[in-house]
UniProtKB/TrEMBL annotation:
This is Cytochrome c domain-containing protein. Pfam families: CCP_MauG, Haem_bd. InterPro entries: Cyt_c-like_dom (IPR009056), Cyt_c-like_dom_sf (IPR036909), Cytochrome_c_Peroxidase/MauG (IPR051395), Di-haem_cyt_c_peroxidsae (IPR004852), Haem-bd (IPR025992). Residues 326-446 form the Cytochrome c domain. It is found in: Cell envelope. Keywords: Electron transport, Heme, Iron, Metal-binding, Oxidoreductase, Peroxidase, Transport. GO terms for cellular component: cell envelope. One of its GO terms (molecular function) is metal ion binding. It comes from the Bacteria. Its main location: other.
Length: 461
């Protein structure tokens, strides 16, 4: 073959390669595809599931000494921060999507963080142009709008990751009355000294403001008590998610040997049965009378009423522009800038996913305290290694009232908690000015209970 012919062939190969590359880089899903199918194509083209999964599709250079180390570190961090496997399954099945997944996808696209440049320089079709970004962001917005049916949000805030608390949730009022009585009844404990309200006081932010709660006989548990306020919005209950409903959660403490220490619900029922007036009222609501199922159901109905709507931030989202200050608004913008609003989403700014504590740094190595079984988090229930040190994300409503913070109650102040999250989740050291602004934003999240601003008798608020 002549040199000129070889040159022409080589040029054709280069031109063809460039053309293919251009098409890959600029290919936008067909408008004829359904929205979820469009997003699936974008995820496939971007290679998201090559890293954000337990079974990564590693490239050939993952075995190269220097490059391979970088690849494996990136894959590990990607999987630790966001496993997209379930989202992909939900997409294909047409199931509702997790608002946390939506928020994470939206944020990395808005920031231009994903796909990373070092990835799409090798995998050309992975890059996101403006047209692809629009498809993805519209997809997020449409799904988010479908999740929330409230019409009170001002139009300009309709696509915010945070939503106002509802004024009420549908309940059976008769059961609520019984549940209220049971919630405050110490007969649910073995020695008649501890009630639900002992650790989740309604006048102390729904918590007890202790690192660990005190049960019968002065025993202390090993995990910080989460607030009962707005718990109806949690997708599961307890830090490790071992209860799927409020009723299941209510069944736990009475039989916990450290908390209420009853041997069985029969022990509780026998004590309650001695109260003829209570039994009569209970039988009017529940035809089958006293039982574990009915007791926990009544407590659940009562806890569904423990909502704290009408915070200053809620009023702001509903259109009252003077409800918060410029400084507090700046705190909210920082909250979003630093990815806090990718896990702390929805009505209670959390409670919708399990997340790893220590994505960027080892929280437990720095804590200088002995590791406990509670530190394993979700792993306690699943025994899946990925779930070790993953916890249900706490809601941030009324956070100024609920110190100390984290599952281990190790953070005494909001400042401490914010700095720790920045370090261990993001790998950054926030300046005090920014911490102060985020704290100011957090103070706007305190809502009302029974029409009165929620306060805490343990605090000067």
């Amino acid at each position: 073959m002549k040199k000129s012919t070889k040159l022409i062939v080589a040029l054709l190969v280069v031109v063809t390669a460039l053309a293919v590359t251009y098409r890959l880089m600029h290919r936008v899903p067909s408008a004829d595809l359904e929205a979820n199918a469009q997003m699936q194509q974008l995820i496939t083209d971007a290679g998201c599931l090559r890293c954000h999964t337990s079974t990564p599709d590693l490239p050939f250079y993952a075995n190269v000494p220097v490059a391979g180390k970088v690849v494996m570190e990136d894959v590990s961090k990607a999987y630790r921060a966001f496993d997209m496997t379930q989202m992909e399954k939900d997409l294909k099945a047409g199931h509702p999507l997790n608002p946390v997944d939506l928020a994470k996808v939206e944020k990395v696209i808005l920031d231009g963080k994903m796909p990373q440049a070092k990835y799409y320089l090798v995998h050309w079709g992975a890059s996101f142009n403006d047209a692809k970004k629009k498809v993805a962001l519209d997809w997020v917005k449409n799904h988010r709008m479908g999740m929330y049916e409230d019409i009170s949000v001002a139009p300009e805030f309709a696509n915010e990751p945070i939503r106002p608390i509802a004024d009420s949730i549908a309940v059976d009022v008769r059961k609520v009355v019984l549940g209220n009585l049971l919630y405050h009844d110490t007969r649910l404990s073995a020695d008649n000294t501890v009630s639900c309200a002992s650790c989740h006081g309604l006048d102390t932010g729904g918590v007890d403001n202790k690192q660990y709660s005190e049960g019968v006989g002065g025993q202390f548990g090993g995990v910080n008590a989460p607030t009962v306020y707005n718990a109806a919005y949690n997708f599961v209950q307890f830090w490790d998610g071992r209860a799927g409903t409020l009723a299941e959660q209510a069944a736990g403490p009475p039989l916990n040997p450290v908390e209420m220490a009853c041997e069985s619900f029969d022990q509780i029922i026998n004590k309650l049965a001695e109260d003829k007036n209570f039994v009569s009222a209970f039988n009017e609501v529940y035809s089958d009378g006293l039982s574990e199922k009915n007791i926990t159901n009544a407590i659940q109905e009562f806890e569904k009423t423990l909502l704290t709507p009408n915070s200053r931030f809620d009023r702001y989202l509903k259109g009252q522009k003077d409800a918060i200050t410029k400084n507090e608004m700046a705190g909210y913008e920082l909250f979003k800038k630093y990815d806090c609003a990718t896990c702390h989403v929805g009505e209670i700014l959390g409670g919708q996913s399990y997340e790893l504590i220590g994505v960027q740094h080892d929280y437990f190595a720095d804590r200088q305290a002995e590791m406990t079984e509670e530190d394993n988090g979700r792993f306690k229930q699943t025994q899946a290694e990925r779930d070790r040190h993953r916890f249900k994300v706490p809601g941030l409503r009324n956070i100024e009232l609920t110190a100390p913070y984290f599952h281990d109650g190790s953070m005494a102040t909001m400042d401490d908690a914010i700095r720790a999250m920045a370090k261990y989740q993001l790998g950054i050291d926030l300046p005090q000015e920014e911490v102060d602004k985020i704290v100011a934003f957090f103070r706007t999240l305190t809502g009302e209970y029974k029409g009165q601003l929620l306060t805490n008798k343990n605090m000067n608020i």
